[in-house]
Amino acid sequence: MNLVAIPAFSDNYLWLWHQNGHAVVIDPGDAQPVSDFLSREGLHLDAILITHHHADHVGGVVALRDATGAQVYGPPRENIPGPFIPALPDTPFELFGQTVEVLDVPGHTSGHIAYFLPKAAPTPVLFCGDTLFSGGCGRIFEGTPAQMLASLDALARLPQDTRVCCAHEYTLSNLKFALAVEPHNPDLQAYEAQCKSLRAQLLPTLPASLGNELKINPFLRSRQPSVRQSVAQFAGLSAQDQADEVTLFATLREWKNNFR
Ligand code: ZN
Ligand code: FE
């Protein structure tokens, strides 16, 4: 399985996988860079997978479907350009030999889903849209902090060698915040150096490794004493509020929203 990140807009990645001339694209916010890639590589687009309804994720769906006849799969509870097959959490489906599992991950939007390929080689692959970013997580626009925390917990339980395909190149700015939260985390320091060098060569920092995210991403680490202490100190949380994991997570997200 060939996995490709097609850059679009200022910082989106339109993820695409292909094998034997057949391709699947995830969240094509723009059709042109995808069509260009397909014709350059001589690929046929068979399917389009959508994680949520935002324009930078669905903007190219109609043009690509019209041009290729690709089958569209999408979140059943979101308003996306139809017709599409509702992707349901308890109903995995197959796309040329790959099993695609669907995960409910509300928070960024209320019907956000993610796609997980448990049998992808050499390691499993996750397409998580705007739920999990390397070093960060999506803004909570429609859901609640409790939902976002539960969604991130569900992603954190996937195999550690999962390749995490996030929809945006936000890594360096996320790591700046992560280092404000955990300035003494050696894994975080090392990862920032590695990502800075990749970006200096204009290379993507993605896909991320889930195992590494568990070591460096404050939004997957909000129950760690180092993160709790830092958040409590920043916001002046009472002992009672510190003990509440949703309050702590919500405060961490709030801190990031205002961080420059
Ligand atoms: Zn979004
Ligand atoms: Fe987005």
Q: In a nutshell, what does this entry contain?
A:
This protein is of the alpha/beta class. The chain has ten helices and 14 strands.
Strand order of the largest sheet: 1-2-3-4-5-6
State mean pLDDT (0 to 100 scale): 97
- Tell me the Rg in angstroms: 18 Å
User: What is the CATH architecture assignment?
Assistant: 4-Layer Sandwich
Regions with pLDDT < 50 over 5+ consecutive residues? Answer: none
Report the total helices.
10
How many β-strand runs? 14
Shape: globular
Question: CATH H-level name... which superfamily?
Answer: Ribonuclease Z/Hydroxyacylglutathione hydrolase-like
The percentage helix is 25-40%
Can you walk me through this structure?
- There is one protein chain.
- This protein has helices spanning 32-41, 55-58, 61-68, 145-156, 171-181, 186-200, 210-216, 225-235, 239-243, 245-257; strands at 2-8, 12-19, 22-26, 44-49, 71-74, 85-86, 93-95, 98-104, 113-117, 125-129, 132-133, 136-137, 163-166, 208-209.
- The protein has 260 residues and is α/β, with parallel strands linked by helices.
- The protein has one domain: Ribonuclease Z/Hydroxyacylglutathione hydrolase-like (Metallo-beta-lactamase, Chain A, 4-Layer Sandwich).
- The strands form three sheets. It has a six-stranded mixed beta sheet, covered by helices on one side. A six-stranded mixed beta sheet has the order 7-8-9-10-13-14.
- α5 packs antiparallel against α6 and α8 (225-235) crosses α10 (245-257).
- Fe (iii) ion binds next to α2.
